[in-house]
Amino acid sequence: MNINVIRLQSTLFKKEKQAIKENNNFLEEINNELINDDIILLENDDSAPFSMVFVESGGSEPLFLELLPKLKEPIILLSNGKNNSLPACLEIKTYCSQQKLISLVFTGGEDQIADAIKETANVINAYNYLQDQNLGVIGHPSDWLIASQVDYQLVEDKFHLHLIDISMEEFFSEIDKKEMVEIPHFATLNKKFKNKDTLDGALYIYSALKRLIDKYHLSGLTVRCFDLLGKYKNTSCLAFALLNEEGITATCEGDVPSLLTMHFLRAITGLPSFQANPSRVNFKENTILFAHCTLPLNMCNDYTLTTHFESGLGIGIKGEMPLGKVTIAKITPDLVADHAVGFSGTIKNNLSLPNYCRTQIEIEPDESGIISLFKDDFGNHLVVSYADCLGSFFTLLNLFEKKFEKQSQ
User: Rounded to an integer, what is the distance from CA 361 to the centroid of its chain?
Assistant: First the structure.
């Protein structure tokens, strides 16, 4: 990816040849830090996906005003911390805030600036990637998700994503064909689960979803999955595990906010994530138990195929997830960026407790984690990602929010 660099210099600064040479070296060092990530800073490249304004000196603010009509959000301001560059950046950033424009200031060492550029490039790539995608809602949210309805038009207007309703009847019709598409890990699945009829039933569900994905050109979907228990004595847990592994975002219970969250995180990181219930809190040890009966197969070291927890039917996934740092996030049903949940934590243990869904992880959250459970209104699911992506997640949400506010004025 190329990033267009626009250099702003006051009239007096243009005479400082040594300072200009230092700034040339500064940009070159940043490029050296970026080279392994296929990102390069180029001057006057109008074809680049976004621009970065290198404010090289104080007194550049009037020049920025002349440049502003040509810039796209987010407006990236770069300072090397010399020649009153940083004070000028802060003045410009304040002006942008007054104009309700998204702006960021990058300063510090070349390696720190390179990291900030990489994160911003990921956010802008994610923003562009998400445009005009279709997400399927098969059936309506489960009856117990009384607070997780979303405004379809608001999703369209704010995120440029199209929610497509697909009836359970159409889904059932596809399942009833009993036609299998090509199945990932077919031999392994047959070794791990010996009841052929149940396994075949779960794979018919996966195959039905694959056909609906092709028919409606879906990048993700959510399903009122508990309705499968009564009709087929089976679940979509295995189907979701396979779909999420192969890059199709799939969530349980018709939970659209979880679908949006997982899809945004995938767009930012390229990785799948785990939709889970925060099922138990240990205040003394500062831990939260997260549990669900499905997770992407490439998020675990190993897994067993067992039954679905609540019903004892079908196939549930019990995965052993790697210990380590995670991000926990959720877009709230009102879709307001400032209301979104986000905190970091560490997976400390995989558990096998009775009376909980099959995959169980014990997470020690940061200071805000347990507070978020009871302060923030997010519904009953949270999403767990192995990526360190909180900053990118909120930056992406705010980018959508600011652009929506401007369109609504």
Answer: 20
Pairing of strands 324-330, 341-350: antiparallel
Predicted pLDDT at 373: 87
On whether the CB atoms of residues 201 and 314 are closer than 8 A, the answer is yes
Instruction: Return the pLDDT at 9.
Output: 86
In sequence order, the 6+-apart residues with CB closer than 8 A to the CB of 322 are 300, 301, 347, 386
Segments in the chain below pLDDT 50: none
Whole-number Å distance between alpha carbons of 387 and 342: 13
Hunting for tokens 């049903």 — which residue is that? 333
Neighbours of 141 (CB within 10 A): 21
DSSP per residue over 58-80, as a string?
TT-HHHHHHHGGG--SSEEEE--
Which residues have C-beta within 8 Å of that of residue 374, sequence separation ≥ 6?
A: none
Q: What is the dihedral of CA 237, 241, 246, 252, to 10 degrees?
A: 50
Kindly report the backbone phi and psi dihedral angles of residue 371, in degrees, each rounded to the nearest multiple of 5, phi listed first: -60, -40
Amino acid of residue 165: D
Q: Could you give the C-alpha distances from 72 to 1, 75, 102, in angstroms and in order?
A: 17, 6, 9
Q: In the chain, what's the furthest Cα-to-Cα distance?
A: 80
Cα–Cα distance between 318 and 308 in angstroms, integer?
10
Partner residues linked to 344 by β-bridges:
327
Using DSSP, state whether 272 is helix, strand or coil: coil
User: If you write DSSP's letter for every residue of 163-206 in order, what string do you get?
Assistant: EEEE-HHHHHHHHHT------TTHHHHHHH---HHHHHHHHHHH
Give Cβ neighbours of residue 162 (< 8 Å, ≥ 6 apart).
132, 133, 134, 135, 156
* pLDDT at position 18: 83
Q: What is the pTM of this model?
A: 0.91
347 touches 276 (CB < 8 A): no
30-69 residue pLDDT tens = 999 998 888 999 998 888 888 999 999 899 999 999 999 9
- Only one residue has tokens 């960021």, namely 104
* Separation of alpha carbons 324 and 235, rounded Å: 30
- Nearest Cα neighbor of 252 from 235, 230, 269 is 235
Number of H helices, E strands in the chain: 13, 17
Q: Are 252 and 382 in contact (CB under 8 A)?
A: no
